[in-house]
Amino acid sequence: MSAVELQALLPLIVLAATGTGALVAAAFAERAAVPFSIAALGTLAALVAAVAEWHAPAVDVDGLLRVDAFARLYWALLSASTFVVLIFMHARSGVGPEQRTGETHGLFVLALLGACVLVASGHFASLFMGLELLSVSLFILIAWHCLMPRSIEAGVKYLVLAGLASGFALFGMALVYAEIGALDFAALADVEGAGAWWWAGIALLLAGLAFKLSLVPFHFWTPDVYQGAPLPVTAFLATVSKIAALALLLRLSATVGLEPGTPWWTALAVVAGASMLAGNWLALRQQNLQRLLAYSSIAHMGYALTAVLAGGAFGAEAVVFYTLFYAATTLGAFIAIAIATAAGTESNAEGATIDNIRGLAHRNPLVGAALVLMLLSLAGIPLTGGFVGKFYVLAAGARAELWGLTALVIVGSGIGLFYYLRVVTTMFAAGDAERFVASSRLIVALLVLLALVVVWLGILPHSAMQAARVVP
Amino acid sequence: MALIWVILIPLLAAPICWWAGRARTDAELKVPLIVALLALLFDLVLVLNLFDPASGGGWWLAIDMPWIPRFGITLSLALDGLGFVMLLLALVLGIAAAWVSAREIREASGAFYATLMLSIAGVLGVFLAVDLFLFFLFWELMLVPVYFLIAAWGHGDAERSSTQSSTQSAIKFFIYTQASGLLMLLAIVALVWLHFDATGELTFAFDALRDTAPDGPAGVWLLLGFLIAFAVKLPAVPLHGWLPDAHTDAPTGGSVILAGILLKTGAYGLLRFGLPLFPDAAVVIAPYAMWLGVVAVLYGAWLAYAQTDFKRLVAYSSISHMGFVLIGIFALNIQAWQGAVMQMIAHGLSTAALFVVAGILQRRIGTREMSAVGGLWHHMPVLGGFTLLFAIASIGLPGLANFIGEFLVLLGAYKAHAPVAVVAALGLVLAAVYGLVLVQRSFHGPLEIPPTSDAVADATVDERMLLALFALLVAVLGVQPQLLFDVLGPWLDGLAVVIDAGVDS
C-alpha cells in the first residue's frame, strides 16, 4: 500500500484506532468520560482529516475502496453526525437505564467506520464488510437498555431482520458474480445483455439496502426499533445508517447507469411511491413521537429515492443536499425530544408521546422553538433546510420528467403536514410541566447549533449547494 | 432599498411587539398594539411616497440582488401600479386588523401582534416579489403566521370544543394551500428547466422566463399548476373547502387579514404571473375558468343564504364575490380587469367591515347565531346602519365601489362570452337575498336577548372610527373609480398587449 493510499485512508485508520481504543478504555476507566473523550476526539480528527483532503485527487485503493470527493464529503457528514450523537449519548449518562454509557462510544465509532467504508466502497467485498460492521455494532447499541423489554424487543427484531437483509445482499452479490464473474463496481458498468441471474442478483442486493433505508415493504422494523432503542442510538440509526445506505445506493445506481424503463428502475420507483404514501399515511395516527418520526423517515427516504431515480449529476446533487439537511434536522428533532421528555427512562418506558410535549413552547421556549423548527424543516416550510431539500427533489423530478413520482411527493407532503402541524399545535397548547428532564448546557447548545445549521441551509444554501455537487 | 424596507418594517416590528407583550399592567398591554399601528402607518406613508405615475408601463422601482447563484435565484422586488394598489390595500386592512384586535385579544397580545406583523410582511413580499422562487417563498411563508393566528387565537365553533375546532380549521387551511402551492413550485421549476434548455441559463426571474414560456399543451399544463394554487386562495369552487372554517374560526383580526388580503393574493398571482407568462394557454383555459367563476358566484351565494351564523354567511359570500374576480381575470379585456381589481379592493373593504361587525356582535352578545339575536336595531342604531351600508355595498348598490367592480366585470365578460355574463348576473339577485337576510335576521324582528345588559351597547368611538374609514373608502372608490384606474392604466395596457398577442396566435 502506497503512501498516497495510506494518506487517503487516514480518516478510516483514525476511526479504527479510535473505536478499538475507546472500547479498551471503557473496560479499564471508571468514568464514562474517558471513552467518550477518546471517541469524540477521534471522530473530530476523522472529520478534520476528511475535510483537509477535500480537494485532493481521487484515490483508488486496491479496487476495494474509492476515495474521491463524494466519499470524503460523506465521511465528513457522517463523522459530524456521529460527533453529535456521541455528545448526545454522553449527556444522557446518568439518566435512566443508560447510566453506563462508556462502551457505547467505542461501538458508535466502529459503526461509523462501517458506514464510512460503505460510502467509499468500490467492490462488493468492501461493501459487505462495511454493511456488517455497521449492523453488528448497531445490534448491541439498540439493545443497550438490556433491562427494558422494549429495548430487547427492538434489538432482536433488528438482529433478525438485519441478518436476513445481509443474507439477501450476499446472495445477490453471489448471483451477480455468477453472471459476470467480477465483484468490483467498475465491472458492473460494462455489463451488456445481462440475463435473469443478473437482474435477480441486483434485486436481492437492493432489497438488502432497502431494509437499511426502511423503504416499504422492508420497513416493518422501523417503528419498533425507533421506539425501543435508546434515543441517541435511534438518532444514529436515522441519520448515519440511512445516509450511508442512501449514498451507496446513489453510487451503485450511478455506476450501473440507472435508466428509466429498466426492471430495477421500475421496481425502485414503485418502492419510492409506496414509501411516500405508506410512511405518511401510517404516521397520521401515531401518538408516540418516536414512532411518528419513524414513519416520517420512511416517507423522507421515499422523497430522496425520487431524486436518486431522477439520476444524472443533478439528481445526485439533490440527494446529497437532501442528506445534509436531513442529518441536521433529524438529529435536532431527536435531541429536542430527548430534552423535553423523559423518553427511554424507567418513568417513561414507552417513549415520548405527543402528550409529553404538551405546552412545551411555554415551558421551555428555546427547546420548543428548536423542535418547531425541526418539524417545519421536515415538513418542508421555507427558510428551513427542509424546504430547499424538497425544492431539490421537485427540481430533480421535473428535470427527469418523472411527473408521477413528483405528484406523489406533493401528495405525501400534503399528508405529512397534518401530523407535523398536530405536534406543533400540541406544543403551544396549555399543558402541565411534568416529565421534564434536567439537561446539560452542552446538549442545549448543541441543539441551538443544529437549529442554526437548519436555518442556514434554508436561508443561505449556496455554499452547501456547491459542496453537494460531487460525482458519485 | 425602499422596497426592502416596505417588507422589513413589519418584520422588524414583530420582535418588538413580542418583547413589549411581556408587560403586565393594563396601560403597558397597549404597547404592542401601538407599535404595530405605528409600524404599519409608517409603512403606509413609505408606500405612498413611492407613487410614481410618470414612469409609464414599466416598473416604477425595482431592486435586484443575488441570493442563490447556483440556481440564478435573486432577491428581486419590483413595484408597478397593480403592486402599489395591492400594497395599499394590504396596509390599510393590516391597520384595521390591528385596530379591531385591541379589545378582542386578551391573551398573549404581544405574540398576537408579532404574528400579525409577520403575516403582513409575508403578504407584502408576495405583492413585491418578481423572482418566482422568492414569490413562492413568500407565498408559503405567509401561511405559517396565519396558521398560528387561527389555531392559537381562534374562537371556533360553539358546538365543538373551541380550540380543537380552530386548530382543525387552521390545519385544513394550511394543507390546502401548501399542497396546491407545491404544484405551483413544480410548474415554476418546469418553466425554469425549459428556459435552461433553451438558453443554457438557470434563472427564476419573471422577465427572463416569460420569453421562453411554452405555448401549446405544455403551456396549458404549466398554467394549470399555477391556476390550482391560485384557485385555492381565491377560492374557486371546488377548491374552497378550507375557507368557511378558516374565516369563521379565526379571530376578527385574522378574518380581516384572510378575507381582505390573503384571498387577493390568488387573484394577484394570476394577473401578475399567470396571464403574462402563458397568454396562449390563458386564451385556451379562459372559457372554462370563467364558467368556474360563475359556479363560484352562484354556489357561494346559495350557501351563504342557508347560513345561520353571521360570520359563516359573510365567509360564503366571499366565495361568491371572488367568483366575479375569477370571471373578470379570464374575460381577458381591460374593462373586466379593471372590474376585477376594483372588486378585489371593494370586497376586501366591505367584507372586512362585515367581519368587524361580526366580531363586535360576538364580543357583546357571545354568539354569532343570527336566530339568537334579532331586533338589535333599536339598541344599536349606529352598528345597524353600518351593517346595512356594507351589506348593500356587497349587493352592489350603485355609488359604492362593489357596484363598479361587478358592473365592469359583467361588461367585460359580456364582450368575451355573453352567456357567462348573463348567468353570473343572477348572482347579483342572490346577493340581494342573502345580504338583506343578514341585516333582517340580526337587526330587525323581536329582540331575543335581555335588553338591559351591556350586550346591546352600541358601537364605541373606536369601532365607529374604523367602520367609518371603511365606509369612506368604499364610497370614494364608488364615486371616483377613475382614481384607481389612473394608477392601474399603464399596467393594464401592458397586460392587454401581451394577451392580444396570445389571442392572435
Offer a quick outline of the entry.
The complex is a heterodimer of chains A (472) and B (505). Chain A has 472 residues and is mostly helical. Chain A has 20 helices and 2 strands.
Overview of the structural elements:
The complex is a heterodimer of chains A (about 475) and B (about 500). By secondary structure, chain A is mostly helical. Chain A contains 20 helices and 2 strands. Chain A has helices at about 5-10, 10-30, 35-50, 70-90, 100-120, 125-140, 150-180, 185-190, 195-210, 220-230, 230-255, 265-285, 290-310, 310-340, 360-365, 365-380, 385-400, 405-430, 440-460, 460-465, and strands spanning about 60, 65. Chain A has a two-stranded antiparallel sheet with strand order 1-2. In chain A, strand 1 (about 60) and strand 2 (about 65) form a beta hairpin. In chain A, helix 6 (about 125-140) packs antiparallel against helix 11 (about 230-255) and helix 12 runs parallel beside helix 18 (about 405-430). The longest helix of chain A is centred in the middle third of the chain and has 32 residues, at about 150-180. The radius of gyration of chain A is 21 Å and the shape is globular. The mean pLDDT of chain A is about 90. Chain B has about 500 residues and is mainly α. Helix content of chain B is about 75%, strand content about 5%. Chain B is built from 20 helices and 2 strands. The longest helix of chain B is centred in the middle third of the chain and has 38 residues, at about 160-200. Chain B is globular and about 75 Å long. The mean pLDDT of chain B is about 90. At the A-B interface, helix 17, helix 18 and helix 20 of A face helix 6, helix 7 and helix 8 of B.
